[in-house]
Amino acid sequence: VQLVESGGGLVQPGESLRLSCAASGFTFSSYVMSWYRQAPGKERELVAAIRHAGGTTNYADSVKGRFTISRDNAKNTVYLQMNDLKPEDTAVYYCNARNFVSYWGQGTQVTVSS
Predict the structure, then answer these.
(1) Structure confidence at residue 8 as a pLDDT band (50, 70, 90)
(2) Contact in structure between 46 and 60 (CB atoms under 8 Å)
(3) How far apart are CA 99 and CA 10, in angstroms?
(4) Is the pLDDT of residue 105 over 80?
(5) How far apart are CA 97 and CA 26, in angstroms?
(6) Rounded CA gap, 14 and 25, in Å?
(7) What whole-number distance in Å separates Cα of residue 96 and Cα of residue 47?
(8) Residue 68 forms beta bridges with which residues?
(9) Over 70: is that where the pLDDT of 31 sits?
(10) In this structure, are residues 109 and 6 in contact, taking their beta carbons and an 8 Å threshold?
(11) Closest by alpha carbon to 31, among 102, 93, 82, 91?
(12) What confidence score (pLDDT) does residue 52 get?
């Protein structure tokens, strides 16, 4: 099983980033896919999740209206479009796949700073 995140980087406040998570080794379409983040000194928190068929999503209040999660089951990939980034969005972002078991990616750093 592999979850490989990409797309992180250093951006200025107000800019955008798109994270991708490429999955392999399991039946991607059967799993709820989520993005979590962990800032230094803080607990890991759920940012956004999307159910199997992509019809139901949920978001942390802090990112509603700015972030959009989506998935492409044909490509075994989940995305997180992040707009209007703020310094408080700075964190390591992790991809998670969950069914009866849970898998994690290695994380990708997002830094928002002027």
Answers:
(1) very high
(2) yes
(3) 32
(4) yes
(5) 10
(6) 36
(7) 11
(8) 81
(9) yes
(10) no
(11) 102
(12) 82
Structure tokens at 50: 């999307």
DSSP letters along the chain, please?
A: -EEEEE--EEE-TT--EEEEEEEESS-GGGSEEEEEEE-TTS--EEEEEE-TTS--EEE-TTTTTTEEEEEETTTTEEEEEE-S--GGG-EEEEEEEESSSEEE---EEEEE--
Rg of the chain, C-alpha, whole Å: 13
Q: What percent of the chain has pLDDT over 70?
A: 99
How confident is the model at residue 55, as a pLDDT? 74
| CA-closest candidate to residue 23, choices 77, 69, 72, 74 | 77
The identity of residue 84, as a single letter, is: D
* Nearest CA among 32, 51, 46 for reference residue 101: 32
Q: What pLDDT does 54 receive?
A: 63
C-alpha span between 95 and 44 (Å, rounded): 12
